[in-house]
């Protein structure tokens, strides 16, 4: 059986992106992630939180600390009720951007975690679940 402990935060302003990063860093340290893995999961969380705020118009964040015997992980859930992503595969490709960035965000975040799932429909928002295992 997996033990799950969670923390939630509403993302409604740019300062909340900083709060997400701190929550994720603290959780990664608590779970015993190496400094490299801490950096990877915090970087992914920062990108996903920024996207939730910028493109989703704000939303919800949930961090779940997972403990299942000797297996430990950190699951990050980002949800918004924004415009959605019309073409998920295109959005995940390097170089694609709808803003002013480099277009490495979603694809980069996906590469920094162990598991990555994105659900989105135009006009119905986006839900991203990213998990990093130790």
Mean model confidence by pLDDT: 90
Strand composition percent: 25-35%
Outline the biggest β-sheet.
5 strands, antiparallel
Number of strands: 5
Radius of gyration (CA) equals 14 Å
The CATH architecture designation is 2-Layer Sandwich
Number of helices: 4
Q: Helix and strand succession?
A: EHHEEHHEE
Mass-distribution shape:
globular
Low-confidence stretches: none
**How many domains, in number, for the residues?**
1
Q: How is the largest sheet built, in terms of strand order?
A: 1-2-3-5-4
CATH topology: Heat Shock Protein 90
> Class by helix and strand content?
alpha+beta
What is the distance, rounded to the nearest whole angstrom, between the alpha carbons of the first and last residues? 17 Å
CATH C-level class is: Alpha Beta
Share of helix, binned: 25-40%
Query: Can you tell me the CATH superfamily?
Result: Histidine kinase-like ATPase, C-terminal domain
Mind explaining what this structure looks like?
By secondary structure, the protein is an alpha+beta fold. The protein has a single domain, classed as 2-Layer Sandwich (Heat Shock Protein 90). Helix content is 37%, strand content 34%. The chain has a 5-stranded antiparallel β-sheet, covered by helices on one side. A hairpin with a 3-residue loop joins strand 4 (115-121) and strand 5. The longest helix has 20 residues, at 35-54.
């Amino acid at each position: 059986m997996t033990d799950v402990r969670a923390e939630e935060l509403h993302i409604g302003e740019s300062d909340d992106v900083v709060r997400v990063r701190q929550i994720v860093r603290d959780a990664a340290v608590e779970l015993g992630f190496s400094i490299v893995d801490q950096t990877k999961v915090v970087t992914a969380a920062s990108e996903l939180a920024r996207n939730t705020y910028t493109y989703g118009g704000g939303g919800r964040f949930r961090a779940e600390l997972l403990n299942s015997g000797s297996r430990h992980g950190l699951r990050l859930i980002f949800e918004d009720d924004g415009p959605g992503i019309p073409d998920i595969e295109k959005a995940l490709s390097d170089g694609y951007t709808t803003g002013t960035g480099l277009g490495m965000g979603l694809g980069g975040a996906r590469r920094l975690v162990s598991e990555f799932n994105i659900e989105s429909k135009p006009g119905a928002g986006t839900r991203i679940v990213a998990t990093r295992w130790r």
